[in-house]
Amino acid sequence: MTTTENPIADGRHDFDFLAGTWKVEHRKLVAMADPHCTEWVEFEGVQWMRQTLGGLGNVDNLTIEKMPDGSRYEGMSLCLFDPESGQWSIWWASTIAPGRLDPPVKGRWTGTHGVFECSDTLEGTPIEVRLDWDAFDADTARWEQSFSFDGGQTWVHNWRMSFTRISHEALAA
Fold this sequence. Notes:
Elements: E1 20-29, E2 40-52, E3 57-64, E4 73-82, E5 87-94, E6 105-110, E7 113-122, E8 125-137, E9 140-148, E10 156-167
Antiparallel strand pairs: 1-2, 1-10, 2-3, 3-4, 4-5, 5-6, 6-7, 7-8, 8-9, 9-10
């Protein structure tokens, strides 16, 4: 997503749209480790993103004051761009798994759509993870997560986050 303000077209500016603070509406499967779960929950949170390393990276923080079970949730990601491969790597950590940094999903953007994938385990079960990003305009975006329990033959959509911009200025927290 290169713009006239960001003339380097190697992909390092793909996440520039996300800088700032966002209201996030979540829709998540209750049991993401169960490929047959059909029960959804909805809740809200706030996320901010700051750029770093001259556009080669960014850090974001997601806060959900009240999850459906009443708990508070906080997560963060580190995204780094590799100019040689043209790919982004995204690492995730959260209060659900203290001290754990998830394996990075890797991928790239094509226009306003990004796809990022990796292999992981969920509750001891090997899975494939896919994240899809869509940047609709300067003030709305969507992130979707899917798991494959059969090596990538089929995918189970399990979490959607719909972003609405609150501020272009990222919090310095």
